[in-house]
């Protein structure tokens, strides 16, 4: 028999609740550097993302591009939908600072406009990141969902500072060797959630 999908695996343990970090006058979208550099300003091949949804949560937080200072806030509608879905997110989820998916520009690959948000990050690591935490990561791949007619790209990445072997992965193939099924687990959760 096939393994049960995420929607069939309802969590019974208590799910942690989070609050948005206080806005401290720093824009998590504009003021956080996307590229990790050396002290000599050389490229390291690493990026930074701002975590919006901690692994294991049922709440949706977002960097708000249209608010002054781009504060990170809970999206009550998104949190309600996650709570109704009932399966905690199995990864940290956030966005790359200083990126934007323009709704007036068509994605050349899919012919769909951008989703009017920063570029999304799905962290395959198994280390919890808090709401608003800036995480150093290595991008490994990407998937594009067409959501309400818009191209909604998700960059698959690993937290390079997380404990364990996933932090050393430099490709999706490496992730499959170190944590077989991890990529599918995460993508299946997204698919199940989108269909709920």
Automatic annotation (TrEMBL):
- MF (Gene Ontology): inorganic diphosphate phosphatase activity; magnesium ion binding
Pfam family membership, one: Pyrophosphatase
Please give the cofactor(s) recorded in the UniProt entry for this protein.
Answer: Mg(2+)
Q: Per its UniProt entry, what is the enzyme's top EC class, as one word?
A: hydrolase
Q: Which family does it belong to?
A: Belongs to the PPase family.
Q: Does the keyword Metal-binding apply?
A: yes
Task: Show the GO cellular component annotation of the record.
Answer: cytoplasm
Biological processes annotated in GO: phosphate-containing compound metabolic process
Q: What is its EC number?
A: 3.6.1.1
- The source's domain of life comes to Eukaryota
Query: Compositionally biased, Polar residues: which spans?
Result: 1-10
Q: What's the name of the protein?
A: inorganic diphosphatase
The protein's UniProt keywords, in alphabetical order, are: Hydrolase, Magnesium, Metal-binding
- Tell me the organism: Strombidinopsis acuminata
Question: Region Disordered: which residues?
Answer: 1-22
């Amino acid at each position: 028999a096939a393994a049960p999908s995420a929607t069939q695996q309802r969590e019974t343990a208590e799910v942690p609740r989070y609050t948005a970090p206080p806005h401290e006058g720093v824009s998590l979208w504009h003021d956080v550097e996307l590229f990790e550099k050396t002290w000599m300003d050389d490229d390291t091949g690493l990026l930074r993302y701002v975590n919006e949804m901690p692994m294991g949560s049922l709440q949706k937080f977002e960097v708000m591009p249209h608010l002054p200072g781009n504060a990170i806030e809970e999206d009550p509608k998104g949190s309600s939908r996650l709570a109704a879905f009932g399966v905690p997110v199995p990864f940290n989820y956030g966005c790359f600072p200083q990126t934007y998916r323009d709704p007036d520009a068509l994605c050349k690959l899919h012919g769909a406009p951008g989703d009017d948000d920063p570029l999304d990050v799905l962290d395959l690591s198994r280390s919890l990141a808090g709401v608003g935490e800036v995480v150093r990561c290595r991008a490994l791949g990407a998937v594009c969902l067409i959501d309400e007619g818009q191209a909604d790209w998700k960059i698959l990445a690993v937290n390079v500072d997380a404990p364990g072997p996933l932090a050393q992965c430099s490709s999706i193939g490496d992730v499959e060797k170190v944590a077989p099924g991890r990529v599918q687990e995460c993508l299946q959760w997204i698919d199940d959630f989108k269909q709920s």
